[in-house]
Amino acid sequence: MNVSLILLLLLIGALVTYLSGDKLASKIAMLFGLVTFGVSIVLLNHYNAGENISFLANWITQPKVSFALKADGLSLAMLLLTTALTPIIIYSSFGNDLKNAKTFYALVLFMAFAMVGTFLASDGLLYYIFWELALIPIYFIALVWGNGDVEERKKAVVKFFIYTLAGSLFMLVAFVYMYQQAGSFMIEDLYKLNLTPSEQKWIFLAFFAAYAIKIPLIPFHTWQANVYQKAPTVGTMLLSGIMLKMGLYSVIRWQLPLGRIAAKEYMPIFIAIGIAGVIYGSIVALRQKDLKKLLAYSSLAHVGLIAAGAYTLTIDGLRGAVLQMIAHGFVVVGLFFAAEIIYRRYETRTIADMGGIRALAPKFTSLFMILVLASVALPTTFNFVGEFTVLYSLSQINIWFAILGGTTIILGAYYMLKMFQYVMLGETNAKPFVALSTSEIITLLVIVAVLFFFGLYPKPITDLITPSLEEILTQINRIN
Residue 49: which residues within 8 A CB-CB, separation 6 or more? Predict the structure, then answer.
């Protein structure tokens, strides 16, 4: 058994879902999502048993391109994040009445296929193909099933598509240049290149152009809030929970090892960019009146801290960044789903139009409160493990980096608790708040359970990712 089975399952799942018709589409997509997650667990067990579950096959002769999938602890962690969140996101949409549901759910599975391929690919051109493929389904999901004014939605989605595509072209140029030097796109061959400091600088910056837009980091973030707001909640979950992790993962897997000299030389600058995102995202979040936009800027702040941790080039920074990537994936999906639950009942995302939900739905209020506290890194939650590790790594570089990065906890607590107060407390809204459905309760409980379990016992993930991160760090620190 090898990891190519995951890609095959998701691709077949997308096709079967489309052919199944609108009535069965959601259930078929859910079935394939669960099966794929189950197979991911089986593959993890094989990997832990010492088996080689990677995949390699010749694909294109000229230029030399291989269909190569690398299954190490880092890529498996991201595979598990994707295959765990995909069925959760699909299940969360069961309360929505979707037109042309077969196409919608087929696009969700196809997007999961592309994102998994991005995390697993170890051939540079194959990786780039998967990277770009992931853009296509989210473009149509946001454009066709999005909300708000049609023209504004089109404008936001087209900007996102062109902006992201343009940034990725710099990365493609870097891959082509390295192929001319190595005669191969395989990551192992690219790692072995002895590029000059000048060459590494331009490659580092070319990758940064692609990743800074995808993550996003300021000042490349201008597409994010509008797309998160205009996309349907499923699309927002896919973007924030998984897709932006493609950029963060790629920083660790591709950018830092291939531009190691530049990474060391410009480390303070890129750490500062990440921390600037923390402060900027938090301040802008304070001013938001739309719940989804507030959560979008909150996400911008958190991913800025993750990026800062990765750019420390320390084992604690890399490990903390990956832990926080996974934790952020679950908590942000939970928060956007809570916002969707409120929207289904009140048909508004304006915070001022909400209020008094606690008196009408105490169980939902409790679950929402847990998600809010997890997002601000309350001890015993998964986010605390990641943020503490990242802040510790920043303190090893410069104590001021840790102090400024730590503002994400202070500012985050302020705007998240303030939002909770206006949304859940206060006077009761005139509209009734219908009790949560079974699917809504299960979705929230699963996410909360994950956040507490790994908040109390993160060892399985740290044991999985640490050897891979140590190998990458060895590559970054090699002399020639």
Answer: none
Q: What is the pLDDT of residues 174-186, one digit of tens each?
A: 999 999 999 899 9
Residues 6+ away with beta carbon under 8 Å from 116? 6, 7, 10, 79, 82, 83
> Are the beta carbons of 40 and 132 closer than 8 angstroms?
no
pLDDT at residue number 372? 95
The tokens 């499923």 sit on which residue? 234
Confidence category of residue 221, pLDDT binned at 50, 70, 90: confident
Q: What are phi and psi of 58, to 5 degrees?
A: -65, 140
Indicate if the pLDDT at residue 95 is higher than 90. Answer: no
Question: Whole-angstrom Cα distance, residue 380 to residue 195?
Answer: 44
Q: Is the pLDDT score of 480 beyond 80?
A: no
| 13-52 tens-digit pLDDT | 999 999 998 889 999 999 999 999 999 999 999 999 999 9
Q: Which CA distances in Å does 450 have to 45, 407, 447, 457, 480? A: 19, 25, 5, 10, 42
pLDDT digits (tens, 9 = 90+) for 416-444: 999 999 998 877 766 788 888 898 999 99
62 class by beta-carbon count within 10 Å (0-12 exposed, 13-18 middle, 19+ buried): exposed
For residue range 316-343, list pLDDT tens digits in order.
Answer: 999 999 999 999 999 999 999 999 999 9
- Do 208 and 263 touch, CB atoms closer than 8 A? no
